[in-house]
Amino acid sequence: MEQAADLPGFNERDRRNFYAIGYDKAMSEIASSDVFDQFSEQEKQALANTMAVNNQAYFTGTAPKETPGLKLWKKVSNHFLRNYVLSTAGKPKQNNNYWAEK
């Protein structure tokens, strides 16, 4: 099996856009749920950053880097986005970055 170095045509602009989608999704959820009222604006931005970083890592099949927002996500009461972020915080159970011809 060979590991793909990168998706053809996927460049830095695409990475930034993918990050922004995750960040904006998190900020939208944070703004619309009173579960996040306990956090300052700076902490909310850290939560959103962690969501975006973890989301990118999840879809690339890698472990995300540790971010300050991860500790904050652990303080969030039951929320579906909390569950998603924490589930993507560690090393992936499976790496799907390989192509195997049959």
Task: Describe the 3D structure.
This protein has 102 residues and is mainly α. The protein has a single domain, classed as Serum Albumin, Chain A, Domain 1. It has four helices and two strands. Strands 1-2 form a two-stranded antiparallel sheet. The longest helix has 21 residues, at 12-32. This is Cyclic nucleotide phosphodiesterase C-terminal domain-containing protein. Residues 4-87 form the Cyclic nucleotide phosphodiesterase C-terminal domain. Pfam families: CNP_C_terminal (PF17839).
Summarize the structure.
This is Cyclic nucleotide phosphodiesterase C-terminal domain-containing protein. The chain is mainly α.
CATH topology: Serum Albumin, Chain A, Domain 1
The CATH architecture classification is: Orthogonal Bundle
Tally the structural domains: 1
Question: Radius of gyration in whole Å, from Cα?
Answer: 15 Å
Multimerization status = single chain
Characterize the biggest β-sheet.
Answer: 2 strands, antiparallel
Features:
Cyclic nucleotide phosphodiesterase C-terminal domain-containing protein; two-stranded antiparallel ribbon; 102 residues; Serum Albumin, Chain A, Domain 1; CNP_C
